[in-house]
TrEMBL record:
Pfam families: TPR_19 (PF14559). This is Uncharacterized protein. Gene3D superfamilies: Tetratricopeptide repeat domain.
Length: 263
């Protein structure tokens, strides 16, 4: 019995000793685990510090950039304010110029109005004159064939004048001074149109039919010019001498003498 009791006690003690060892092992494992966790926490803390430093550096950079940006923005704002101030000054100057321009424009308008009034007065007079001329033209339409022919000749419308003068030259009712004038004008139109034969014919006819007519002074002068143009210088000279002899007081004598000296 005693041996069994001792054996039982020994087994109990051994089992109790074994139980304490397991607890110590568990405790040691817990300590190891805590040590590992502590190391890991230290690593995390170190990483966090590194990250925090990185964040602080970035914040510092951003702060510097913000300050730079703020400085640039202030500079831009100051530049814009300066530009705006200049523009305002320019606008004020333009406003002054506009006021001066308005005054000048007003004066010009007043001057233009005065000129327009004068032009209006002038136009009224001109219209009145034109209406008077139109009345004269209407009267001209009622002119006789003789007056119409002389009017065309006077205005240099020689083609129309010649046609009318030729009709008058064949009209037996046209006599005396009127016929002499018709012959003279026909001779002049022929000379102007370089119709030498027509000119010599009409001037010769004028001198033959109306030898004492004053139209002969000019007629003989241009007859001489026509003959000279036809290279008939001797006959041209005789014609000029006849002019000087028959019409010594005529204004054409002076020109006749000059032509005579050249032949």
């Amino acid at each position: 019995m005693q041996r069994e009791f001792k054996l039982l006690m020994l087994i109990t003690l051994l089992s109790l000793g074994a139980c304490k060892t397991q607890e110590e092992i568990q405790r040691e494992q817990m300590v190891d685990n805590l040590s590992i966790q502590l190391v890991e926490n230290q690593k995390l803390t170190a990483d966090s510090k590194v990250r925090l430093q990185g964040i602080e550096e970035r914040l510092g950079m951003l702060t510097g950039q913000f300050e730079d940006t703020t400085h640039d923005t202030k500079t831009q704002l100051l530049t814009q304010l300066s530009t705006l101030s200049e523009k305002v000054s320019l606008l004020e100057e333009k406003d002054k110029l506009s006021s001066n321009t308005l005054d000048v424009t007003q004066k010009r308008l007043t001057s233009i109005e005065q000129k327009l009034k004068k032009q209006d007065t002038y136009l009224k007079k001109l219209l009145a004159t034109l209406s008077g001329k139109s009345k004269k033209k209407s009267k001209a339409k009622k002119m006789s064939k003789y007056d119409s022919a002389m009017y065309d000749y006077k205005k240099g419308r020689y083609k129309n004048a010649k046609r009318k003068l030729e009709a008058l030259e064949g009209n037996k009712r046209i006599k005396g001074t009127k016929r002499a004038r018709v012959l003279h004008n026909l001779g002049m139109v022929s000379y102007i149109q370089k119709n030498n034969n027509g000119a010599t014919a009409y001037f010769g006819k004028l001198f033959t039919e109306y030898p004492k007519s004053s139209y002969n002074a000019n007629g003989l002068l241009f007859l001489s010019k026509t003959l000279s143009r036809m290279k008939q210088n001797e006959q041209a000279k005789q014609t000029l001498e006849e002019l000087i002899k028959r019409f010594p007081k005529s204004k054409k004598v002076k020109e006749a003498k000059k032509l005579l000296s050249k032949l």
